[in-house]
């Protein structure tokens, strides 16, 4: 840990000791903890050197994203037939029904359509089970590297941090209880996304 991180941890430990804070949250304690140590981190510079993306409205590049913002474009669309039959779920007044026919969707169908030549290091049997989020993420990471002009990442001490929402593929695969593939644990879980990128691109992480 860096010196600023160590200082924050030290201050927090002192705060806990002085105020009798235990490991369990005290709902009735209205006293706010000291957070002045975190101010030191807020001023750290962040450089965005490359971008890759897949967004609703067919946005795939930073230029297209910028144009969509400038034009104030509505990137929503009708629910694709490949997602679900919106006619069977939509109702303007029925309780529990879907109240809209529109949403924000990626135009490309990534399920079962990954470019196998792009992932030669992943065996075919594993690709069959792989969460589309993983293949999509690796494609976008590659484009991000290209956009930034980065070529010397192989084997370097580079960290990978991924924010993710939802484990739909994992939940669907878990319902098949009679045949759970051996790659299920690391092919579907959101917790494997950053590790998948680090492994495929041989990123060694910060040390």
TrEMBL record:
It holds the Pfam family ketoacyl-synt. Residues 43-207 form the Ketosynthase family 3 (KS3) domain. Gene3D superfamilies: 3.40.47.10. It comes from the Eukaryota. GO terms for molecular function: fatty acid synthase activity. InterPro entries: Ketoacyl_synth_N (IPR014030), PKS_Beta-ketoAc_synthase_dom (IPR020841), PKS_NRPS_Biosynth_Enz (IPR050091), Thiolase-like (IPR016039). CDD domains: PKS (cd00833). Keywords: Multifunctional enzyme, Phosphopantetheine, Phosphoprotein, Transferase. SUPFAM superfamilies: Thiolase-like. GO terms for biological process: fatty acid biosynthetic process; secondary metabolite biosynthetic process. This is PKS/NRPS-like protein biosynthetic cluster. It comes from Aspergillus tubingensis.
